[in-house]
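Weekly puzzle thread! Below is a chain. First person to post its structure in token form gets bragging rights.
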Amino acid sequence: MLNSTQTLYQPHNISVSDYQKMAETGILDESVRVELVEGEIVDMAPIGSRHAAVVNRLMRLLVNATDKDAIVSVQNPVVLGDYSEPVPDLVLLKPKSNDYEDALPQAQDILLAIEVADSSLRYDLQIKAPLYAQFKIPELWLIDLQQQSITMFQKPVENQYSLEITLRSPETISPLLLSKIKINLQQIF
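Winning reply:
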């Protein structure tokens, strides 16, 4: 009988650099939805029509509201340290004249990360939220499609957010660092 507390093997963590080389050389197929989280390649949940519709609505609302104050990035990777390249559903980035053509955005570039969860709520809460907090992403919105709610996570401290607020329609939400943006939750759901 194996002792489950013993480490029987040491997994090989994949770096962001190695992960990107795997994609460039075709080892990772572009059609496969994966992301790199803490050195592990993780399959992403499929995107259903409801999930896609909410992402599209949010994108339209944010693009119209941000003007030149932020770049709205939709389902694009961000680099968090040497071992993580997650793919948030939406991110508001600090403006950059070349739109991050020279390199993927990093933690210090992110004003707000948004995850839309239909079947991925536990993963987003237990894996991605602590990852974003670890890298001091100032704010995360987790949109729960089942509950038709948005939980705002703010003020990262020691790999967790110290402030958590859940809102439902007809509440209005504003990003912490872009308070002039006002989105009524009725516009999302």
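Puzzle host: Confirmed. Bonus trivia for everyone else. The CA atoms of residues 134 and 158 lie 6 Å apart.
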